[in-house]
Amino acid sequence: MSSISIRDVRKTYSKSAAPAVDRLNIEIPKSDFLCLLGPSGCGKTTTLRMIAGLEHPTEGKIVVGDRTVVSVDEGIYVPAEDRDMGLVFQNYALWPHMTVAENVEFGLKLRKVPKPERDRIINDTLEKLAIARYRDRLPSQLSGGQQQRVALARMLALKPDVILLDEPLSNLDAKLRLEMRAELKRIHAEMGATIVFVTHDQWEAMTLATTIAVMSEGELQQLGTPDDIYERPANRFVAEFVGNLPINIVELQDNSTNPLSAWVHGMLADIRLTAPAGSVGIRPEHVRLVPVETSPRPATVIDIVPTGGSWIVELSADGEKFFAITPEPPGVAPGEQVGLSVPHESLHIFDAAGSRIEAVLQQTTGGKS
């Protein structure tokens, strides 16, 4: 299997436009499952297409294994068809006039694989993806999930060292997306290929990836494991983008006239910071509802939403919206007053520019407020 090294890669489409990708540096170890995660227009698909050879970088270098596949300074460019990569598009891109078996066979024919070997590979691949019974059907006779499996089978039949997936699950319904996530994890475990997966769905990234690269406006915001990304976001963008329910953000003010800001300032008094704090993030699952008389921070319950296994509680604290998640029925009703309690160690603290601030909890604190 091959590693991928993206070095100072920049892509611009015109001199007047902002870069689609700007000074991107990512090292992807061999057999890693990397998710490029970010909102639409952040540069993740452009990055994937540059790895594949479908886009030319304006600057920079990409190395796959021990081979430079593109280097602007050195004038090196390896065509897409010579990079030994498998690519699956969002729209499947199947040949409509070919059967399932013929679609899977197509790349093997181009490589002049002998027919007995082609037949064996086709049979094995279709069986692994549970679509052998559809081998004689045309793509138009298949569901979206079945077509996606055919697209994967066509790519996997070639046994590429690197697999590139451009939002391959976005057209599937919820049940099929869940099934295909499990299928992709199994394929990765069995093949050990290096996978680069583009998605705007943070839940997909968190459940599939061994490493996540979060991008925004063409720039890399953070590279790390799913736990790193969620538990230690590098900045406010990552904290606010990653999470099924948005993180609660409290803007800190110099004066204490805002009660919500004053409450958080009180918690920060127990914490040693390496820089002045500009805002604090609190994940909804770390907010505890307690009797109002036991907490310095009262809030009003606005709504309670059951999600099947947990409850989302929408709150108003001094006119600002606040969310909590609880695994047990909250035992309160809309309109009631509750107190809020948050463990000090769960606070995500950012400076005025939005960068994460390292914090050390003082030993004297009880740990909650």
UniProtKB/TrEMBL annotation:
This protein's GO cellular component annotations are:
ATP-binding cassette (ABC) transporter complex, substrate-binding subunit-containing
Instruction: Report if keyword Translocase is assigned.
Output: yes
Give the domain of life: Bacteria
A Gene Ontology molecular function term of the record: ATP hydrolysis activity
- Give the membrane topology, semicolon-separated if more than one: Peripheral membrane protein
The record's annotation in Pfam families points to: ABC_tran (PF00005), TOBE_2 (PF08402)
SMART domains in UniProt: AAA
Please list the residue ranges annotated as the ABC transporter domain: 4-242
Annotated keywords: ATP-binding, Cell membrane, Membrane, Nucleotide-binding, Translocase, Transport
Report the subcellular localization: Cell inner membrane
Q: Which family does it belong to?
A: Belongs to the ABC transporter superfamily.
Q: What is this protein called?
A: ABC transporter ATP-binding protein
Which organism was this protein described from?
Nitratireductor aestuarii
